[in-house]
Every structure is written in C-alpha cells, then in structure tokens.
Design brief:
This protein is of the alpha/beta class. It has a domain at 2-132 and 165-216 and 259-280: Rossmann fold. It is 48% helix and 10% strand. It has helices spanning 14-23, 25-30, 38-45, 61-78, 95-101, 108-119, 133-146, 154-162, 167-177, 188-191, 195-203, 222-228, 231-234, 249-267, 298-308, and strands at 2-6, 33-36, 83-87, 123-130, 182-187, 275-276. Helix 6 (108-119) packs parallel to helix 9.
C-alpha cells in the first residue's frame, strides 16, 4: 500500500483540500484511495509521536504510537486500500510557533523524523504546499489576530522579513528527515483552488470534480477582521477595506523575491531533494516551439503603410 503524507503547509488551502477528500470518501474508496484527516489524526492516532506533557505511566508512548499506526495501516490494507493519503498540516508544526519565533517551521526536520519512525517504511511520498511568503505571512497574521493574537508591531514584522529561513530550508529539512521518500512541492498559486488537481498529481487517478470548489477557513477581509476582534485590538488595525496588508511595499517585495528564488531553485531540480508539481492543464511547448516573432501581423502592416505614405 502506498502511503502519502500531505503535510500542508498552513494557509495553503489545506482545510479545503481535506473537506474535498471527506466529501468524496465513498467514491475514492471504490478506486482504492483511502483518507485520514485531522478528525482522525487528532483524535489520539498521533498521540505520543511528538514529545510533550504526558502522564507518568512508565510506558513508551512513541512505541505505542507506532504500534497503533501499524494496526490501522494493516486494517486499511485488508479493506483493499491501494493508496492512503494522510493529511494534517500540524505534522509540520503550528502557526502559533511560527509567529512566536518569527521563523518558518524551524523544527520541521525533527518532527518529520519522528513521523518517519512511527510510520516505519510505509511512507512512499510526501506532499508539501507552499505559497509566496508575503501572502503566507499575511494570511497567518490575519488568522492569528482573529483568534486573539496581538497585532504585530513594526519590529516583529521586520524580524519576519529579515529571517533567513525560506521554503527551501523547509524542503531540505524534510528531505533530510525522510530521505527514502519522494517529496512533491505543490505551489498554492497553481493548486490552491483546485483540490482535484492536487489529488491527481499525487495519486495519478482521475479525481472527482464534485465538492472541488468548497472554500473553508479563508482569511477575513479588513472590515470583517476589525468587527471580529475587541475594540482595543481593532483600533490598532489600519482604516480601509479589502485585504489587510501588514507589510509595507519594501517588506513585501523582499518576501516575494525570496519566494522567487525558492521557485527558481525548485524549477532547476532542487538539488535532487524534491519535485515541483506542474499545472496539468498547461502543455509544454515541445522541441520545436512556434516562432511567433517571425509571424507578420497588424503592426507589420501598419508600419509598412506608414513607411510608404511619404
């Protein structure tokens, strides 16, 4: 059985993808596709994989977690599942931790190494969704402020912008933690609104189109964000409507440039650590692309008439 870990990241339409999978569970099951989402993974299935407070019982929680996972995986095989997709963005970490440290999933390597140990040799593929850093951090901040996080100060925003860590570092950490798995990177700008395209890229099956346009957990626009927080917090937010933009133009440009560098690195092969998933609706030009620059058109005719008029 092929096991695919869909690790998020946060704010990359992961919740919408999980809802799409849940709504199509029955139809996908007929194709041999199984799905575990947060409703299952956060209900005790992953308990003990990551270090944390636990009752003193003398039991090895990590070993028990591995045994629990192996039993569940065996049950899936017995039911005829050929490909199991496990989706939980908290496998990488949390938004709260990213904002507290002003860094991008700094502990993802250790976390994924623990999941590798728990799943054993069953994991064949990992899927990672990424998005432009300016929009990622903007969405994360809007999500956090709506849930009680304080409005970031100028110093905090500068710390985020100046942090050297980018998606390239996250990808390298995951690849080092799980070197025997294939790592697929799916840009949010291409796959964020198309969960069926994500599923096809990861499994190779013809994905259903039903429930493919459900949008969950989207960032609040500025006026709705101000209405959802206490007055003291709303007073610290800027006036206006539309999307909240906490970064100024210079900061946003720096974050976009770093993301462009990451995408160029991925397009160039990512040093063999990951594969950039391409838009299935876009076809390559081929060995002999059309030479449009040599094709005459209306501008050529206009210039010829102007040249002959004198």
């Amino acid at each position: 059985m092929k096991v695919i870990l869909h690790t998020g990241a946060h704010r990359c339409a992961t919740t919408s993808f999980q809802e799409y999978m849940r709504q199509n569970t029955h139809g996908l099951g007929k194709q041999g596709i199984g799905f575990w989402g947060p409703f299952r993974t956060r209900n005790g299935l992953f308990h003990g994989i990551q270090p944390g407070p636990a009752s003193v019982t003398g039991r090895n929680l990590a070993q028990r977690a591995r045994g629990r996972l192996q039993i569940q995986l065996s049950n899936c095989r017995d039911k005829g599942v050929h490909q199991l997709l496990v989706s939980d963005e908290n496998m990488m970490g949390t938004i709260r931790e990213n904002l507290r440290l002003g860094d991008l999933y700094g502990g993802v390597g250790e976390r994924m190494a623990r999941f590798s140990q728990a799943f054993g040799r069953t994991v064949s593929d990992i899927a990672l969704s990424i998005r432009s850093l300016d929009s990622y951090w903007t969405s994360a901040l809007a999500y956090a402020v709506a849930r009680g996080h304080r409005v970031p100060s100028t110093a905090q925003l500068d710390r985020i912008v100046q942090a050297p860590r980018s998606w390239r570092d996250v990808i390298a950490d995951i690849a080092c933690a799980m070197p025997d798995t294939r790592l697929h990177v799916l840009p949010f700008e291409t796959f964020g609104t198309r969960p069926e395209a994500q599923l096809e890229a990861l499994t190779g099956v013809e994905a259903p189109k039903t429930h493919a346009r459900v949008r969950l957990n989207a960032s609040l626009c500025l006026q709705d964000l101000k209405a959802s927080v206490p007055g003291s917090v709303a007073a610290k937010l800027p006036e206006g409507t539309g999307r909240w933009r906490p970064f100024d133009d210079t900061q946003a440009a720096l974050l976009r440039e770093r993301y462009a560098d990451d995408m160029m690195w991925l397009a160039g092969g990512a040093d063999g650590t990951a594969t950039l998933a391409h838009d299935p609706d876009k076809l390559a030009a081929g060995l002999n692309p059309p030479r449009t620059a040599l094709t005459r058109g209306r501008p050529d005719d206009k210039q010829r008439r102007m040249a002959g008029s004198g």
